[in-house]
Design a protein that fits this description.
By secondary structure, the protein is of the alpha/beta class. It has a single domain, classed as P-loop containing nucleotide triphosphate hydrolases (Rossmann fold), CATH 3.40.50.300. Helix 3 runs parallel beside helix 5. The longest helix has 14 residues. It starts with 8 loop residues before the first strand and ends with a helix. It binds adenosine-5'-triphosphate and magnesium ion (MG). Adenosine-5'-triphosphate binds next to helix 1.
């Protein structure tokens, strides 16, 4: 018998609880995602969007249920592999950047994984150009504006070319031109991605599917972005 394809995400009855919390921040969550899908993840404040992204990146572990990313189970012993497969853009860019300069920050991950310097230089150059941040290459992280930090954090993820992008409010802090550039860059990528966002316009422009979370549970899951245009349903979901 053929085994089922591994897909990009297989999430079955997953519950995630924070330490000392009795109720799960994610409760009995089940869904799958295939390569190339761009999924908008919407839900009110506290619905569990960031928790889901952190769990898919292996930074939180399911208390119940089974979860795999690109065929790798999300569990303690496989964290290294999960980090390689996923690129998580944190909701707050301050949580992401940790090296003294933009260049050092962007090179840290690829060097760690043994990318040769010539390839790295090529990728870095192309990426900085593409994001319109070539002028920021040598800049101290502490001297970046909010939007520049957001772009630097995004560049740090894209340079790793992960199989699954997990983007938590990628458009926040960006001015309209940078936000348009972000949408263009993301829509040109073939990579599967989940975008947690309150920015429905960005979701409409980018996403091939929409998932709605409410108090840790999936309330709706449909192709395209039409869920975001259903005013009555949005009200019910607390949006
Ligand atoms: N470190 C933590 N410890 C305990 N509870 C937490 C922790 N982080 C989040 N929570 C709780 O888990 C629930 C889900 O939070 P989460 O950050 O995933 O929501 P969100 O959908 O990303 O919200 P937002 O739109 O505000 O970013 C909330 O009730 C929140 O209070
Ligand atoms: Mg969040």
């Amino acid at each position: 018998m053929n085994s089922p394809p591994v897909g990009i995400i297989r999430c079955s009855h997953v519950t995630v609880r924070y330490v000392r919390e009795k109720e799960g921040a994610l409760r009995d969550l089940s869904f799958s995602a295939e390569p190339g899908e761009r999924i908008a993840l919407a839900g009110a404040n506290g619905a569990g969007k960031s928790t889901l992204l952190l769990t898919l990146a292996g930074m939180l572990l399911p208390a119940e249920g089974s979860l795999s990313v690109g065929g790798v189970p999300v569990c303690q012993s496989r964290i290294g592999e999960l980090r390689k497969k996923t690129g998580l853009l944190f909701q707050n860019p301050e949580d992401q950047l940790f090296m003294p300069t933009v260049e050092e920050d962007l090179c840290f991950g690829p060097r760690n994984y043994g990318m040769d310097e010539e390839t790295l230089e090529e990728k870095l150059d192309a990426l900085l150009q593409n994001l319109g941040m070539a002028g920021l290459r040598e800049r101290s992280i502490h001297h970046l504006s909010g939007g520049e930090k957001r772009l630097a954090a995004l560049a740090g993820i894209l340079i790793m070319e992960p199989d699954l992008l997990l983007l938590d409010e990628p458009g926040s802090f960006l001015d309209p031109a940078a936000r348009r550039k972000l949408i263009r860059i993301l829509s040109d990528l073939k990579t599967a991605m989940i975008i947690a966002t309150h920015d429905f316009d960005l979701a409409r422009r980018l996403c091939t599917r929409t998932l709605i979370l409410k108090v840790g549970r999936i309330r709706a899951d449909a192709p395209g972005s039409s869920l975001l245009d259903d005013a009555e349903a949005l009200e019910r979901w607390g949006l």
